[in-house]
Design a protein that fits this description.
Elements: H1 13-21, H2 29-46, H3 50-64, E1 70-74, H4 80-88, E2 93-98, H5 101-110, E3 118-122, E4 139-145, H6 153-166, E5 167-178, H7 186-202, H8 210-217, H9 224-233, H10 246-255, E6 259-267, E7 270-276
Parallel strand pairs: 1-2, 1-4, 2-3, 4-5
Antiparallel strand pairs: 5-7, 6-7
Helix pairs in contact: 1-9, 2-5, 6-10
Length: 277
C-alpha cells in the first residue's frame, strides 16, 4: 500500500514564481481530469485489484444501505470513491473530506459537484474539530479507501468514535485498505508480499508510481499555491507510521460502538471491513 513519503522534485521557473506570489495558475477542468486519470492509473499500479474492491464496496452499500442515502467519504483524495458511488446510485449524495490541498483542488476542478450531489470539505481527520466542518450531521454510510493506513492506532481509535457518532443507528462504515495480518501470521504476511510481486511480474502495467505522480503534480505551476500548502501541512514523510493490524481494527471498532464487524471481501491483506453502528 502506498504511504506518503518525502518526494524529491524540481521546480520550474514558473513554479517558483507562482509559489513566491502564493497564487496558482488556472487549472482547467480538462487538465484536472487528466491529473485524476493519472492518479487512478498510479493507484492501480499500487493496488492491482482496486476496481474489484470498489465493486465489492458498492455491492455492499446497495444490499446493506439501499440506493438512496447520504455518504461520508473519509480521506477522499481526488474523489475516486465518491465518483463511483454517485455514478452507480443517482439518488445518493456524498460529502467528501480530505486535508491535502493538491488532491482537493484536482477533485473539485476535475469532478465538480456532480449536479450538486457532491460536497467537498477541507479538514484534518486527525483532529477533533473536523465534524463541525461538515454541512450535515447525520449519514447513512461512511466509506474510506486506501487512506486510513496513514493513521496511528490512537488517531484511528478517535476517528472511529467520531464516525460512529455521525452515523444513524443501523448505518454502516466500510473501510477498503491494506490491513495487515497480526504478528503471529508471519508466513501468511510474507506470502501476501510474494503474491503482489508475482502479480506485477505476470501482469506488468505501465504507468506512474506514487512517487512519480507526486513529483510531477507538485511541479505543476497551476497548482503552486496548493503545493506550498501541501508542504506546510505535511512537513515530514509518513512512511513507516505504526498502524493497526486486523485484530486492532476489530477492537477499535468495537470500542467505538460498532457491531456486526466483519470482513466482507479480501484478497490476501487487501480487505473490506464492514461495521454496523
Amino acid at each position: 500500500m502506498p504511504t506518503r513519503r518525502a518526494v524529491r522534485y524540481s521546480r520550474s521557473p514558473d513554479t517558483r514564481a507562482a509559489a513566491r506570489t502564493g497564487r496558482s495558475g488556472t487549472l482547467s477542468a480538462s487538465a484536472a481530469r487528466e491529473w485524476r486519470r493519472r492518479w487512478d492509473q498510479q493507484q492501480v499500479h499500487e493496488v492491482r485489484d482496486r476496481e474489484a474492491r470498489f465493486e465489492a464496496m458498492l455491492d455492499a452499500i446497495e444490499v446493506l444501505v439501499g440506493r438512496r442515502f447520504r455518504a461520508l467519504d473519509l480521506g477522499c483524495g481526488t474523489g475516486s470513491t465518491s465518483e463511483r458511488i454517485l455514478r452507480r446510485f443517482p439518488a445518493a449524495r456524498s460529502v467528501a473530506i480530505d486535508y491535502d490541498p493538491v488532491l482537493l483542488r484536482i477533485g473539485r476542478s476535475g469532478l465538480g459537484t456532480l449536479g450538486g450531489r457532491l460536497t467537498w470539505v477541507d479538514a484534518d481527520l486527525r483532529t477533533g474539530g473536523w465534524p463541525r466542518r461538515l454541512p450535515v450531521r447525520r449519514f447513512d454510510v461512511a466509506v474510506s479507501t486506501t487512506a486510513l493506513h496513514w493513521f496511528s492506532p490512537a488517531q484511528l481509535g478517535e476517528l472511529y468514535r467520531r464516525v460512529a457518532r455521525l452515523l444513524r443507528p443501523g448505518g454502516w462504515f466500510l473501510n477498503g485498505d491494506r490491513i495487515s495480518y497480526p504478528p503471529g501470521a508471519r508466513h501468511v504476511r510474507d506470502g501476501a508480499r510474494s503474491a503482489r510481486r508475482l502479480s506485477r511480474q505476470r501482469n506488468p502495467r505501465p504507468g506512474e508510481t506514487w512517487d512519480a505522480w507526486w513529483s510531477a503534480v507538485l511541479d505543476d505551476p497551476r497548482l503552486a499555491a496548493e503545493a506550498e500548502l501541501h508542504r506546510r501541512r505535511y512537513p515530514r514523510a509518513h512512511g513507516g507510521t505504526p498502524t493497526l493490524d486486523l485484530d486492532g481494527h476489530l477492537r477499535a471498532l468495537r470500542r467505538a460502538g460498532f457491531r456486526e464487524i466483519e470482513l466482507i471481501w479480501t484478497h490476501w491483506d487487501n480487505r473490506v471491513l464492514a461495521a454496523m453502528r
